[in-house]
Each structure stands twice: as structure tokens, then as C-alpha cells.
Write a structure and sequence with these properties.
The protein is about 30% helix and about 15% strand. It is an alpha/beta fold. Bound molecules: flavin-adenine dinucleotide. Flavin-adenine dinucleotide binds next to strand 3.
């Protein structure tokens, strides 16, 4: 399972996405615990934190075309449905960390 886990996330890394949090990263635990609802505090293979819309697009394309990995997309993280904004045995695309997506409608970013 560990090898499979790494393969999914490494594929994203090799595609050029720099910010990926793995379970052994302290920030990974912070992201899990930051969900408002316990039902969404799931543990994905990794959190991918795209820095702009191109990386969001790239992450989705890579996951769909190069893996068979399930994935979830987190925006604000308010939804309490398990599997909606976080996922087990999959990858979570996390839109809400250092890079601030002002709104989903504008889906552009401010990265500092
Ligand atoms: C305390 C509280 C109060 C609330 N009050 C209200 C209210 O007054 N009115 C109301 O209408 N709702 C309310 N809600 C519900 C909340 O608006 C919904 O749960 C909404 O989905 C949360 O949006 P989010 O940005 O947190 O998305 P998330 O929880 O991060 O994601 C929700 C879903 O949207 C998908 N998603 C996320 N980002 C994208 C994207 N960029 N593109 C495509 N899909 C995406 C995710 O995959 C997931 O399926 C409330 C929720 C809470 C916890």
C-alpha cells in the first residue's frame, strides 16, 4: 500500500507540482485537523496544494490520465460529506492553504 500511495503522489510531483504534503509532514496533520467536520477529517495519500489555476488543471489531468486514483477537491472545507472535500485511499487537491484563492468564481490566486 505504501508503494501505491507514493506512486500516485510522485506522479503528480514528477509532473511539476511542487507542494505536496505527505502523511509524515507535520502540515499534513494540520490540514486533516483543519476540517470543520469530523466526517471530513480523512487521511488521503497526500494533499496537493496547487499554487495557481494551471496547477489545478495539471493535477486533475495527471490524476485522470496517468493514474486510477480517486481524488477530492477541497475549497473552504465546510462540506461534511465524507469523500466530497477529502478522501481515503485517494488524493486531495487542497485549494486553501498558503496560496489564497480569493473566490472559486475567480479561481485565481495570491501566492506569497
Ligand atoms: C457552519 C456552516 C454553515 C453553513 N451555512 C450555509 C448557508 O447559510 N447557506 C448555504 O447555502 N450553505 C451553508 N453551508 C454549507 C456550505 O456552504 C457547503 O457545505 C459548501 O459546499 C461549502 O463550500 P466549501 O467552499 O467549504 O467547499 P468544500 O467543502 O471544500 O467542498 C464542497 C464540494 O465542492 C467541491 N468543490 C470544491 N471546490 C471546487 C471547485 N473549485 N470546483 C469544483 N468543485 C469543487 C468539492 O469536491 C466538494 O464536493 C454551511 C456549512 C457550514 C459548515
Amino acid at each position: 500500500m505504501e508503494k501505491l500511495t507514493l506512486a500516485q503522489c510522485r506522479t503528480l510531483q514528477e509532473a511539476g507540482i511542487k507542494r505536496i504534503l505527505y502523511p509524515n509532514d507535520p502540515e499534513y496533520s494540520e490540514r486533516v485537523q483543519s476540517y470543520w467536520s469530523l466526517t471530513s477529517q480523512l487521511t488521503p495519500y497526500c494533499f496537493v496544494q496547487p499554487k495557481n489555476t494551471e496547477e489545478v488543471s495539471m493535477a486533475v489531468k495527471v490524476l485522470v490520465s496517468q493514474t486510477q486514483c480517486k481524488f477530492a477537491i477541497r475549497s473552504g472545507g465546510h462540506s461534511s460529506n465524507a469523500g466530497a472535500n477529502n478522501i481515503e485511499e485517494g488524493v486531495t487537491i487542497d485549494l486553501g492553504n498558503k496560496c489564497v484563492f480569493k473566490t472559486i468564481a475567480y479561481a485565481d490566486y495570491m501566492c506569497v
